[in-house]
Amino acid sequence: MVGCLAVAACGDEQSSDDATESTQTQSASDSESASQSASETDASDTSATQSSTSPSEGDTSGESSGAETDPTVADTSGDGTDSTTGEPQYCGLADLEGGAWFELSHHGEPFVADSALAMERGGQGSLMFLISTVQGGFTPPDTTIYYSVTIDVDGFAGPTGHFFQNTMYGLYVGCDQVDGGFLPSGIAVFPPDGVDIHLLDGLPATVHIELLADDNPTWDGEIVLEVPDDGSLDQCGEFG
Does the reported pTM lie above 0.70? Predict the structure, then answer.
């Protein structure tokens, strides 16, 4: 019995010692865990503080992307206006200052007194005389400018009493494309309806052209009508 009691006592003592050691180990482990948790909390707080005061690496939300539109470059896409000012763009004017002026030409040659003005078939198939223009020196209120045109040929007159007359002949001088291309800058002179065009060949014509801007510069002179006899007038135009 003594032996059993002694063994039991030893077992209880060992169990007590083991429990004490286990408790101490667990306490140390809990203390270490608490210390580590506190360290992680401090690190998290520091990270949050850094995140709130400075952008993280790779965050360029506060930086320029380099793709911004240069405000000094005019955007003329689509509507023929400068996106930075809303003002019209002019592709049919050589300049915008200095006083209104214009020059005339025909088939690449300067249009002067005694020039030949040859009949041709236009893009839509109509017979006409085309006088090309270059103009500038002023800023129109919109993208259309106007000429006053009167042409007289003895013995040939239309409803206006003239061979051709249009006192408000509009020319588009903007930058938009029409039908896939820019409109030619020129004055299309159509003969009166019902005229035998071959009778016009070699006849003199008195021309008055006035640009309706500023001091209204004008061109006056007598030219010679020409009707080609090479078959070119028998061909349809590009859209005819």
Answer: no
